[in-house]
Amino acid sequence: MGSKERIQRLKEDTRANILDAALQIVKEEGWQALSMRKIADKIEYTAPIIYEYFFNKDAILLELTRQGYIMLGEKIKTAKNEHTETASQLEAMWIAYWNFAFEYKEFYQLMYGVDMICCEQKKSMPEIDFLDNLFFDTIKDLMKAEEPDESVICRKYYTFWSIVHGLISINMVNKGRDEAMNQHILRDALKGIIKYIND
């Protein structure tokens, strides 16, 4: 490996270390505790070095948000590909969404602003478009109309999302019902919406 490649690898490793340190701080102390100074202390660098990689804390939040959407998109796609019947695909996708929220709680809080302010710059991320399109295409496949109106698909998507996200938020912020009860509520809601779309 040449010196140019070594320098590039070192930069990539340092960038990854900064992001890992940020996540570690959040897991230990919450999003409100995150600061450039704490990240620098965690990886034993000076704060100015952190600023060479990320302009400010918002830039770190934006990159972590992007990574969260990449992971979530992969999990949703995998869940969809494990089924052949459209209704089963859609149910599995939303269950994967639910599971992601609790397996990667810190990412989910950042991505959707649960119990915190989410990153405002995320609106134009291609990773979000990828995730939305997975759901939109599957909902479209489930609908009986030849070419369903885009606004109807959008409305169905937001019906699903508001219920699933609402349940997740309740559980993250206020500690809702036990897991067995949550699973019953989630599956009942998903089956009800899917049945409504199918009718």
TrEMBL record:
SUPFAM superfamilies cross-referenced by the UniProt entry: Homeodomain-like, Tetracyclin repressor-like, C-terminal domain
Pfam families cross-referenced by the UniProt entry: TetR_C_33, TetR_N
Protein name in UniProt: Regulatory protein TetR
UniProt key word DNA-binding: yes
Domain annotation HTH tetR-type: ranges: 12-72
A GO MF label: DNA binding
UniProt organism field: Pedobacter heparinus (strain ATCC 13125 / DSM 2366 / CIP 104194 / JCM 7457 / NBRC 12017 / NCIMB 9290 / NRRL B-14731 / HIM 762-3)
Keywords, ordered alphabetically: DNA-binding, Transcription, Transcription regulation
DNA-binding region: 35-54
